[in-house]
């Protein structure tokens, strides 16, 4: 195997990885967009057997800094992650480097929101938990390779 | 990086990003309108869409608890049946309005209460027991009202029985008897009978209101104004 082929193979794998990250970020974006719309429409405050009561979405923890819905911030974060991953998939290596800190911050935020639901509000919102799962997946996809030292080959 | 790989990047990624941005913004704007996410395609509905016809056809409506707690005229032409969960915030919000509307129409309207504690509410069944136990001492509606007025107090508590007993004291009940009655099997059976009735009617959430047997505004949150309007219309059409 020539070094050129190994390098191209690695680059190819990296871009597929980026595309995967972009895909998950897109799913997260859809989820966050839905939660933002729910929040803005002030809807469905009934308690549904399946999806819950929106106690989480109606709580004071659902907005920050003068009425900005947390879900909207999440949507912005997912959109940024999606954009960076898409750019990385098309070869913008700089974009990939920005993904890691973004996803790390998103993951920390996710831990905080799960803590709030579990111990403070003591209610869950299904779509919030879906978002938590997606962000955790993104964190694994983006941060784990770096932590395991495989980052050198993928970056 | 070689010059040729830079040229191959192109504008496609930006086009994709731009399209996603537009699509998401449009979707959020459309879904944010009042009622926007309560369409039949919304997630809350998707689960009921799986077997609605099956359930309605194969299950006859179950009767619920015998002699349910009811207010108003026994010969009223309009009956409101409410499936409610004491821990449900929306039920708590609706309670005063429901009381007002029932009060305004007096004997012309009959308000029937059905217990429908949801699984996700860990204290709801106990609260229902508390209301039923208070009912044995003639104070069901008073306990019902306090449970809703002070909902946050007992739902946030580590041991809501403490709150329930304090409400019983406030209402002048025999607290020892109240505590014993809360454990009664027949009261739990009443609650479960109402839940069975709700399930047989395909009740999917709380509060769910039936007016003369027809579900009011399925899937939507009924407000005091909605109630007043619907009850008024029903009374007019029945000639009273």
Write the layout of secondary structure elements.
The complex is a heterodimer of chains A (155) and B (240).
Chain A: H1 3-41, E1 47-48, H2 55-58, E2 63-64, E3 68-69, H3 70-89, H4 93-121, H5 126-147, H6 151-154
Antiparallel strand pairs in A: 2-3
Chain B: H1 3-7, H2 12-31, H3 43-49, H4 52-58, E1 70-72, E2 78-84, H5 89-105, E3 109-115, H6 124-136, H7 140-149, H8 151-155, H9 160-170, H10 175-182, H11 185-200, E4 205-206, E5 208-211, E6 214-215, H12 224-237
Parallel strand pairs in B: 2-3
Antiparallel strand pairs in B: 1-3, 2-5, 5-6
Helix pairs in contact in B: 5-7, 5-12, 6-7, 6-9, 6-10
Instruction: Describe the strand arrangement of the main beta sheet of chain B, using strand numbers.
Output: 1-3-2-5-6
Mean residue pLDDT of chain B: 85
For the record, the CATH class of chain B is Alpha Beta
Shape of chain A: elongated
N- to C-terminal distance of chain A: 20 Å
Tell me the overall shape of chain B: globular
- The amount of beta strand of chain B, in percent, is 5-15%
Number of strand elements of chain B: 6
* Number of domains as seen in the coordinates of chain B: 1
Strand residue content of chain A: under 5%
Amino-to-carboxy terminus distance of chain B:
85 Å
Number of strands of chain A: 3
Structure described in brief:
The complex is a heterodimer of chains A (155) and B (240). Helix content of chain A is 76%, strand content 4%.
What do you see in this structure?
The complex is a heterodimer of chains A (155) and B (240). A two-stranded antiparallel ribbon of chain A has the order 2-3. Chain A is elongated and about 60 Å long. Chain A has a single domain (3-154), classed as VKOR domain (de novo design (two linked rop proteins)). Chain A has helices at residues 3-41, 55-58, 70-89, 93-121, 126-147, 151-154, and strands at residues 47-48, 63-64, 68-69. Chain A is built from six helices and three strands. In chain A, strand 2 (63-64) and strand 3 (68-69) form a beta hairpin. Chain B has 240 residues and is α+β, with helices and mostly antiparallel strands. Chain B has a single domain, classed as Glutaredoxin (3-Layer(aba) Sandwich), CATH 3.40.30.10. Helices cover 55% and strands 10% of the residues of chain B. Chain B has helices at 3-7, 12-31, 43-49, 52-58, 89-105, 124-136, 140-149, 151-155, 160-170, 175-182, 185-200, 224-237; strands at residues 70-72, 78-84, 109-115, 205-206, 208-211, 214-215. Chain B has a five-stranded mixed beta sheet, with helices on both faces. In chain B, strand 2, helix 5 and strand 3 form a beta-alpha-beta unit. In chain B, helix 5 packs across helix 7 (140-149), helix 6 (124-136) runs parallel beside helix 9 (160-170) and helix 6 (124-136) crosses helix 10. The interface between A and B is large, with 38 and 45 residues.
